[in-house]
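During the no-cost extension, the postdoctoral fellow (Dr. R.K.) reprocessed legacy sequence entries with the updated structure-token encoder. One reprocessed record is reproduced below for audit purposes.
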Amino acid sequence: MGSSITLSYVPFVGSRIQLNNRVAGSLIRNGVSGSSCSASASASAAPAPWLMLPPSIKTESRNMVYKFYSLGEGEVIRVKNKRSSFYGEDETIVPVKYVGSSHGWLAVCKPFRDEQFLYNPLTGRRVDLPPIHSLPGGDYSTEINKLILSCSPDDEENCMAIMSYTSNQRLAVCFPSHYGCFKWTPIGKPAIQLDVKTFPRRYSDFVYSGDHNLFICVTRFGEFEAWNIPHHDSNKCPPEMTPIHLKADKKNHPWGSVGKSDENLLKKMFASVKCLVVSEQTNQLFLVRRHVANRKNPFDLDTIPLIKTFPYKTVSFDVYEIDLDKRELRYMENSLNGLTMFVGLNNGFAISGNGGGVNPDSIYFTDAKEYSPFYLDNESTYGGHDIGVFDYVNRDFSPCYYPTEKRTFSTTLTLPPAASGVDKIKRIVPPPMWFTPSF
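Re-encoded structure tokens follow.
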């Protein structure tokens, strides 16, 4: 896992952190600094992201210590932050939930307090977000599922935040740094009519495309939407949605034809999670279908309860390029054209995989929000564990920082924990996520 580096938070206006010379040089070489909303500003810079590990609180000083695993350096980086910069004026330390990571900022919420904010662990800056209890379907116990940004809040005029909230995964947007518009605006229809039944629409994922200046969303039913969000005054200029109807190759949708025999079987046995990925370097959009073996045996649900025996595990990926101009969904066979993709609770993004400590034509993944246990669930013995690297060419998995236990999934019988490898899984709280350093 490499050695360890400690970075010290420096409390002054426009603060920075004191970096190990080699790590600092690497960040500078890769153009890591303030973030801009323009696609061109980030097109030339593609540093390897960090894997955010569970932070800790110093008992005596009660200061926060953030820990990151740098893919480029192969080292654990520790960032010491003053507690006040994270918790604000609140004298009590309550559990927080991390609900996103975008452009060097973490999205954090305090459930049951209707308090959410953005936090940059490298500068110690905090930006409060509007309350959500007054949104349709919301109250003081409403939780955020995922939150991403269009760019850094340092760009106060252009930064937008979009989140999904409630168990029905509804959408809302706001402008974090614009004090004249300190509120969430709900977007999207909450339900869909199928035949004579009505179902929650549930937005599975969303990304911001700087090249198109649009938020792109996908629902659990496979509907794609493009949202144009006018700046600041949503009453005069409400958000505009354009449906995106995409043609897909039936041979490779909803399951891709490429894969090993057991892999293809598991694809069709279990559900998939939809992820959206944007490559700012190449101005491309992708749909990533993440196939996850869940906690139940689909062949014998009534007689073989597998809640504790088979925790969820990612077993395969299929990737499709989204061509907005031609309205096509093109299956990527055996190659990601040299890109490396990062999916999880972060905003889905891709970088050029040539060097920088990451493997090209690979998908680096952390826990999917759909499967992670509730953060206050003290009974689950697993969660946050579904982390690794998927080689899209060779269709193989490899570990990333955390060791990967090889687990056996049987379609016809239940295996004891020791035989399946489940007994070696440990829960990780909070679940790790990808973080792109910016300061």
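The first strand starts at residue 4 and ends at 9. Residues 21-29 form the longest helix (9 residues). The remaining legacy entries will be reprocessed before the final report is submitted.
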